[in-house]
Design a protein that fits this description.
Elements lengths: L1 H32 L1
Length: 34
C-alpha cells in the first residue's frame, strides 16, 4: 500500500511539474509573439 502511495505521489509531482513548464512555455510564446 505504501509502495502504491509513493508511486502515485511521484507521478502527481511529475505531472504537476510538467504542467507548470507547459504553462510557462505558452506564456513565453505569447510574450515573444508581440
Amino acid at each position: 500500500m505504501s509502495e502504491f502511495k509513493r508511486k502515485a505521489h511521484t507521478y502527481h509531482g511529475f505531472h504537476h511539474r510538467s504542467f507548470a513548464v507547459l504553462e510557462i512555455f505558452i506564456l513565453w510564446k505569447r510574450i515573444t509573439a508581440d
